[in-house]
Amino acid sequence: MSVETIGGVDVELNEEGFLLDPSQWNEAMAVELAKREGIEAMNDQQWKVVRFMRAEYEAKGAGPSVRVLGKTSGVTIKELYLLFPKGPAKLAAKIAGIPKPRGCI
Amino acid sequence: MGNTIEKVSIIISKGSLEGVYPGLIMANGARAEGIEANLFFTFFGLDAINAKRLSHIKVAAIGNPGMHMASLIGVLPGMSAIATKMMEKKMEENDIPGIPEFMEMIADTGCGIYACKASVDLFGFTKEDLIGQVKDIITVGEFYEMAAGGEIIFT
Lengths: 105, 155
Known about the structure:
By secondary structure, chain A is mainly α. Chain A has helices at 27-36, 44-60, 66-72, 77-83, 88-95, and strands at residues 2-6, 9-13. Chain A has a single domain (2-95), classed as Arc Repressor Mutant, subunit A. In chain A, helix 2 (44-60) packs across helix 5 (88-95). Chain B is α/β, with parallel strands linked by helices. Chain B has a domain at 7-56 and 99-154: Hypothetical Protein Ychn, Chain: A (3-Layer(aba) Sandwich). In chain B, strand 1, helix 1 and strand 2 form a beta-alpha-beta unit.
């Protein structure tokens, strides 16, 4: 666990770099979190996925797995992996400031 | 970051439902973690990438202690089909895709799907017998080249 200033806010991150308190998140923070993952500037599709993850988390209390994301976000699994090569659900969740989805599929 | 897995090459050698799924779940899960993954189908595992057979992969009803029933019952006609139906229903309830959808999804994640040349030759198959997601038919030597520097998992 570590405390860092991201997007002008002091936040706590777990060992994998996920926000401990999702309520602290804002879109300026997302830009900085994305940069840490090697995404210099998020494109519209990446924003679409991140915002979708955020909305799902707020509605259901957990972010979707890649399969569900592919079926419900309007972005196909193939595109998701092009947008987030290091794991779409995991990366989009991290950038969206929500916990890592725990599904196996 | 010395403690992370960067690449896995998973061999699927069995053609039963319980023989195929673990490898598929591990390959898909690897990609979800951003780990490079390859699937290598050999021997009866080839059924999972055989265009005519992948929709008909069944649970083994005999010689399978996990079924918790006497093998004598398992030999009755249709037992394997019944066990498979029950398993597929459970999987659907748990949001696990059927094998055809799963193979498509795994290919879309960027996982490489390969067939074993020795097995393809042995069974008299050609590339046309296999699903379109199969990248290539490769030798065991080529498999090791591809797997170099990563973990190999045999199932």
